[in-house]
Amino acid sequence: MRVLQQSFFTSGRKVKPTETNSGPPTPPNHPFSFYQNPKITHGTAPLGTGGGFRLRHRRLRATAPLPGPKRGARHRSPEGRSLPGGRCPAAIFCHPPSEKAVAGGGPAALRVLIGEPRGQAPVPAAARSRRARHGGRLEEMEVGICKQDMLQKKKNAVLVDGVILNGPIMDSKAGEKFVEEACKIIMEEVIQKANDVTEKVCEWRAPETLKKILDLEMRDTGESHQKLLQLCQDVIQYSVKTSHPRFFNQLYAGIDYYSLVARFITEALNPSVYTYEVSPVFLLVEETVIKKMIEFIGWEEGDGIFNPGGSVSNMYAMNLARYKFCPEIKEKGLSGLPRLVLFTSEECHYSMKKAASFLGIGTENVYFVKTDERGKMIPEELEKQVQRARKEGSAPFLVCATAGTTVLGAFDPLDEIADICEKHGLWLHVDASWGGSALISRKHCRLLCGIHRADSVAWNPHKMLLAGIQCCALLVKDNSGLLKKCYSAKAAYLFQQDKFYDVSYDTGDKSIQCSRRPDAFKFWLMWKALGTTGLEERVNRALALARYLVEEIKKREGFQLLLEPEYANVCFWYIPPSLRKMEDGPEFWQKLHEVAPIVKERMMKKGSMMLGYQPHRGKVNFFRQVVISPQVSREDMDFLLDEIELLAKDL
Ligand SMILES: Cc1ncc(COP(=O)(O)O)c(C=O)c1O
To answer: Which of 170, 193, 208 is the last residue of a domain?
Structure first.
């Protein structure tokens, strides 16, 4: 209540709390707090604060009239800027009419009610369309949301707490037009430019500059559609074009038109995938996709859940393995448990540490197993670590192998690791977030030889297969309902057992989420469009391009491979002319360490391409080129090397 009072009647005066507005004080930095933010001169009531009008009127009658803007005065934002539209759209808040006048339903009162400036008659429809033809189309759409509707219904106006309840308060026609215009921009500025190498990958601006270019401030009054469309253009202009053929920065890139359309559909339908009653199609789609992924892993049966990422899948798996190890943890919690230990390689994704800390296992209880020179876990070292943990009296429960490590793209030897897991009774989870897509390729699926022996697998089709972020599945070999047993909370308001349909399709209780996106759908539509052979072709082509790049690197002076890649991660140094004659030693490596960040800065400021670099386990900064997108061609590989040479020629 206090929020309301302080926000609506401010005009430079402090309003004392009354009995009606007793309540917790407004937090000091709350945007509606008058005491802390005396600049605010108007505002809208947060829903559920008790309704604005009556309260506000009572307040008005009890005090002297408050000064407000003059009729039709230029409306100013809290910062003093003249706002679009010129006249005060929030006249209602500045000059509230008497309750009687509003309840009486006179046209003036209604104009006030719907936010039309007082003293201005509603614009007749014919005049509005004339204006529309003369270029004022967008502003016209916004003139008084639902004004016409409201006026038509004024005779039957129903007011509750001063809020008119007749008809919707959204102008859907204007909204539809806005969507249409915005889609045109998306089509022209993102989709049609996705293949154009003459476009920049990024339009780099430093944060402070970008803040000045973009109008980020959110104000009390909404912006015009024209302004919003301009903002959309700005957002696109200054965002990184990850669908550009020269975006090689991360483990995702490119554009897939089918998964994009699937995303448009799901964004428009806005479903939540937990019960069959609200997501019948998407639940069946998810079931089908999970079944197919399980087939590729080589399990006869299994279970799974799409979730917000490989990191989350790894966390799911860690918790599931622990639940299998000690099911009572679900009710009893951590107390009384032995010291649980898990094993993963030194090259694992950092989400392993995060998961261990988040789940209360502790990062010290993640035992990192040594890798060979290619970044693969050494099975003998794993065996030693398990023995060590046992000797220490701790309780080993899980091994997390990686199929496709993040930096080097290495694949752990799954068969040998599975032997050790079987011997010690440990859950085997395979983080195939990056490398899982190789399963689709008959040529490259051998990289994951032995994956069928895993208990769980994390696989992100949003990486190599371009299904669009986020599209990630945790797949589990168990088919006895372990996932559900581990995660279910049996919320009675959602998962009623006496529904009129087969409630086994209400799969949401397997998830740690409540609302969940239909991420399987984009993968499904893409798979439908390309067929398995189309997906396979993508994987084969990405790996063939990576091979081409490797051979080119070997041929060119100044380029040096870190190692022969197994997958699509091509890691290399560029040694600029001035370093080529230097002796190998600390000074050389220090200077080389500085090359990649400088080249990266130059490529981003030019906008010509984006490529990642990092130091890694004792090695100085090197480039990591990741080939994914089917838009990328041999020419782009050549360009990449030429561009590095060009950007570093003076170094
Ligand atoms: C091997 C591996 N696992 C897990 C992840 C995390 O996946 P996400 O970004 O979907 O959380 C990554 C990300 O690159 C990865 O490379």
So the answer is: 170
85 & 220 share domain: no
Q: What is the mean pLDDT of the chain?
A: 83
Instruction: Give me the number of domains the chain comprises.
Output: 2
**Phi then psi dihedrals of residue 152, to 5 deg:** -65, -30
Tokens of 66: 């408050």
Smallest Cα–Cα separation from 85: which of 221, 259, 232, 276?
Answer: 221
Give a yes or no: residue 207 inside a domain. Answer: yes
The minimum-distance atom of ligand 1 relative to the CA of 309 is 10
**Which pLDDT value is given to residue 154?**
62
For residue 355, the CA-to-ligand 1 centroid distance in Å is 13
Question: Counting atoms of ligand 1 from 1, which one is nearest the CA of 348?
Answer: 1
- Ligand 1 neighbours, Cβ below 6 Å, are 251, 309-311, 349, 351, 402, 404-406, 431, 433-434, 460, 472
| Integer Cα distance of 519 and 511 in angstroms | 13
Q: Distance between CA atoms of 343 and 431, rounded to whole angstroms?
A: 13
Please give the DSSP secondary-structure letter assigned to residue 609: -
Range of the domain at 222: 175-241
Q: pLDDT tens for residues 184-226?
A: 999 999 999 998 999 999 999 999 999 999 999 999 999 999 9
Give 405 Cα–ligand 1 centroid separation in angstroms. 9
Closest ligand 1 atom, CA of 460? 10
Which pTM was predicted? 0.80
324-372 per-position pLDDT tens digit: 999 999 999 998 899 999 999 999 999 999 999 999 999 999 999 999 9
